[in-house]
Amino acid sequence: MKKASFLLFGSCLCVSMMAQEPSDVEWKPVLSKFGMTRWAKNVSPDHVLPEYPRPQMARKEWMNLNGLWNYVITEKAEAMPTSMNGKILVPFPLESPLSGVGKMINSIPGRNKLNSTLWYSRTFRIPAYWKDSRILLHFGAVDWEATVYLNDKKMGVHQGGYDSFTFDITEELKRGKENTLMVGVWDPTVRGGYPQGKQVDDPQGMLYTPCTGIWQTVWLEPVAMVSIGDARIIPDIDAGTLTISCSYNGQAEGHTIEAVVKNGQVMVAGLTGPAEQKLAVAIPNPRLWSPDDPFLYDLDIILKDKKGTIVDRVKSYAGMRKISLGKDQNGITRILLNHKFIFHNGVLDQGYWPDGIYTAPTDEALRYDIEMIKKLGFNMSRKHLKLEPERWYYWADKLGVLVWQDMPCVANGVPASGFAVSPAQLNEQFGKELQAMIDKRFNHPCIVMWVVFNEGMGLEKSSTLELDEPTRANMRKMAAIALKDTTRLTDAESGSPGIEYQGWNKLDIGVGNVIDAHCYGTTNCPSPTDEKASVIGEYGYEKFLAGSPKYHPLIQNPGISGLVWTQITDVENEKNGLMTYDRSGFTEDLEKMAALNKKLKLLVK
Q1: What is the pLDDT of residues 268-315, one digit of tens each?
Q2: How do 227-236 and 153-159 pair as beta strands?
Q3: For a designed S-S bond to 523, which of 77, 147, 327, 553 qualifies (C-beta 3.0 to 4.6 A apart)?
Q4: Could you tell me where the beta strands, DSSP code E, fall in 109-176?
């Protein structure tokens, strides 16, 4: 059975079919000790995150594979299973209440996460009118290693818990018949030495429940024999241009690419050129993107063959904005947006949910957190040690929230005993996932800074928190990956030059665009230099309103460009949020908080 849905965003009408897996088992959420959000009631096996998952590169046709899948957990060394023993609601991770399972692998008798594989299975049938198309299978994210099979044929393996990946399944697809999709997931969490953020197998304090398996939308998409694989969009407000360059599936030699920029239905600019070349589209009198005016241009990207026939078309959007360093009227190095100093007043945002863990229950819920950041008077989110689905960044783009995006850290400690991966291999994998973070989210105007490391988490340190030179050299190597993105700033080590009693000043590796201190309980923060702005990457813990006088010394001494309050919501056992974990209420007076942030905006010039 297929359920069609028609989804609007921007100027794109997308036709989606929800491919549903019949079930003789009634699904229901598992009781959560942290409660459920009000959006959980809107989740059902035939209505699971139905929105188009990739707003910056949208096509008309797609099929959503979210819903009930079969699952089983086996020993890692075992072959692909021939039977399943339960149902799981995709894309909610295994441990989440909304998955219908709500268990950690290590809590299952006889199972060890390091030596276990979580298997998923479902069937689907593609529409007959897709018969002349190549079929792409997309995964938003799977934590951590995913091995994908179609009709018993191995499609490939992907490693990395936070980035999307795609397989062309055309050759193995049975057209007009049922197809069997299987995914085997291995996720070592803290025992593998791979990026995993705040996930641990024994959640407590500031460390939280792990996220195992599929946790973002799975979907199918028909494309032409030659199609647009990716598009990179670079705004240049000084030149007044949008530069667009595309990669392709198939041989695009002799094809042309056309870019049409619109303000709603009104064409603003357009340009056509050879497919393999960049297009620098001139934007007359560009309207600049900012938190106060998050204006987005609609963008059509059209691929034509040698005869001039349209073979592919994607809908996108772009924001004209520039983030840079520069001097304010007092000669202080500041972070500038569109050549103007705008104070980055933000919150730490960990992106956890009591019912979905890593996965928001609905798109409305995903949007709600961003709306509340704005309503509270903030203009920035530091997305902390976690990445989000594309739709979260779409809402940040559309609603106008600046984003400092963290790279998820590796585990504190070393891999499990006998784990056959060298430190060099782990460093290489960290670099690959860092590069993927940047490449996959490059086009979002909301993202203005990459944060590579946080407080030296996952790094070997002496008892005085000092790092040896080989570790520092490797950190500089990783930071160099982010620094290659000249359209944004790089925070190489958040918390590195903090005050003496915290000791994080000994972690400074000497590169990046900002000095980032974590200043809990103090206003003794470092001054900017000629080369670096100064920000406070974390502060707070005490009640927000009670701590409000702190704002004044922070902005006067010694020229801070940004603040990050810890944090927007409570998370599991960590009770320091401005909202409760289930988003049912605020822990502070909303109107007073908004007024305080408005006053701060006026004070900082």
Answers
A1: 999 999 999 999 999 999 999 999 999 999 999 999 999 999 999 999
A2: unpaired
A3: 553
A4: 116-124, 134-139, 142-143, 145-150, 153-159, 165-168
Q: Are residues 332 and 457 in the same domain?
A: yes
Main-chain dihedrals φ then ψ at residue 249, nearest 5 degrees = -95, 120
Based on the fold, state whether residues 259 and 173 are members of the same structural domain: no
Is 493 in the same domain as 463?
yes
* Domain of residue 127, residue span: 2-223
Domain boundary among 223, 253, 281: 223
Residue with tokens 């670079």: 234
Instruction: Work out the number of other CB atoms within 10 angstroms of the CB of residue 584.
Output: 11
DSSP H or E segment with residue 261: strand 256-263
CATH code at position 284 = 2.60.40.10
Do residues 280 and 343 both lie within one domain?
no
Cβ–Cβ < 8 Å for 295, 287: yes
269 and 355 co-located in one domain: no
Q: Are the C-beta atoms of residues 562 and 380 closer than 8 Å to each other? A: yes
Asked if residue 228 belongs to a domain, the reply is no
Number of domains in the chain: 3
Q: In sequence order, what are the beta bridge partners of 536? A: 517, 563
Total Cβ atoms within 10 A of residue 383: 23
Whole-angstrom CA distances from 505 to 241, 474, 530 are 41, 18, 19
Helix axes 390-399, 363-375, angle to 10 degrees: 40
pTM: 0.95
Q: Which residues contact 139 (CB under 8 A, 6 or more apart)?
A: 146, 148, 158, 164, 165, 166, 214, 216, 218
